[in-house]
Amino acid sequence: MQQQRRTFLWLWLLWLAGFYSVWLYLVLGLGLWPEAKAHWPIAAAMAIGSYAAGSTPMGGGTVGFPVLVLLFEQPATLGRDFSFAVQAIGMTSASIFILARRQPVAWAMLNGAILGSLVGTPLGIWFIAPYIPGLWIKLIFAVVWASFGILHLYRINEIASHSGMTEFNEKWDFKVGCWIGLFSGATVASVTGVGIDMVLYTALVLLCRTDLKIAIPTSVIIMAFTSVLGVVVKNLTTGMQPGVFENWLAAAPVVALGAPLGAYIVALIGRKPTLVVVAFLCVLQFVWTIHSESAQLGITGIAVSVLAVALCLLGFERLRHWGTKLAGERPQPAY
């Protein structure tokens, strides 16, 4: 088995060789090194983001989006398109690494989510995302990630204790995956550039009570697929936002190694500490967003944002309760 893993890892090394050959051609052959060098801050930020991308169910855009939009004060649409672009490299690299190491994946639900995303993501890019104002994009990102972070802060022990996954009919898993891919691809991923991985992961750990060693690699692969799809669709139809390529040029060589490194290191130190840290960051970015946009939101907008987080958490708890019943277990309190 060990020899077999070493053999498959050559596929990942071949991917890296191909990517870095193209990147070197761009920066040296086409003289784009000054552009890459000028955007070094996003490369530094994505050193952290890429680790989170490979070791948690949150894509590299989880860091890239708030850094560009909140810290660098760039348009939310740029943060969204950059998330697609940078994850198309980092998450793809992590996915190839995961598959090369033959890590377990929830294939039935993943295949369904891929099919759903194949339909939902382009529809969202064409018919939903163009009509979402920049402020709403920020709030959707902030609310989804905050609720996800809070969920892990009070349910982390339970989530980390799962072993294997609840066995259902594979056709049922596939159908659930299809609906997840269709809905989250059309709404969350197309609008923010990230999120479909978190939705699929949430269904796996709350509904199917799936081991993190299965749920997280599965979420990485669906985000890789959706990111590549998003880049292709946007480049062929609506076009990417100005500034995406320059930031991608700086960050891509970092995430190509950083995301697989995160997938490897987390297997040594455990996923729970990383998830807790990232969960705190998710809550922090919500507070940061509300503070920076408080003038536009007003008291009503802030109250609605907090209510939206509460509704997301209520939905998570209903999903968990359903999963507990399906597994034939008595619901446990948060701890």
TrEMBL record:
<feature type="transmembrane region" description="Helical">
    <location>
        <begin position="274"/>
        <end position="291"/>
    </location>
</feature>
<feature type="transmembrane region" description="Helical">
    <location>
        <begin position="174"/>
        <end position="207"/>
    </location>
</feature>
<feature type="transmembrane region" description="Helical">
    <location>
        <begin position="297"/>
        <end position="316"/>
    </location>
</feature>
<feature type="transmembrane region" description="Helical">
    <location>
        <begin position="106"/>
        <end position="128"/>
    </location>
</feature>
<feature type="transmembrane region" description="Helical">
    <location>
        <begin position="84"/>
        <end position="100"/>
    </location>
</feature>
<keyword id="KW-0812">Transmembrane</keyword>
<feature type="transmembrane region" description="Helical">
    <location>
        <begin position="135"/>
        <end position="154"/>
    </location>
</feature>
<keyword id="KW-1133">Transmembrane helix</keyword>
<keyword id="KW-1003">Cell membrane</keyword>
<protein>
    <recommendedName>
        <fullName>Probable membrane transporter protein</fullName>
    </recommendedName>
</protein>
<feature type="transmembrane region" description="Helical">
    <location>
        <begin position="248"/>
        <end position="267"/>
    </location>
</feature>
<comment type="similarity">
    <text>Belongs to the 4-toluene sulfonate uptake permease (TSUP) (TC 2.A.102) family.</text>
</comment>
<feature type="transmembrane region" description="Helical">
    <location>
        <begin position="7"/>
        <end position="28"/>
    </location>
</feature>
<feature type="transmembrane region" description="Helical">
    <location>
        <begin position="48"/>
        <end position="72"/>
    </location>
</feature>
<dbReference type="Pfam" id="PF01925">
    <property type="entry name" value="TauE"/>
</dbReference>
<feature type="transmembrane region" description="Helical">
    <location>
        <begin position="214"/>
        <end position="236"/>
    </location>
</feature>
<dbReference type="InterPro" id="IPR002781">
    <property type="entry name" value="TM_pro_TauE-like"/>
</dbReference>
<keyword id="KW-0472">Membrane</keyword>
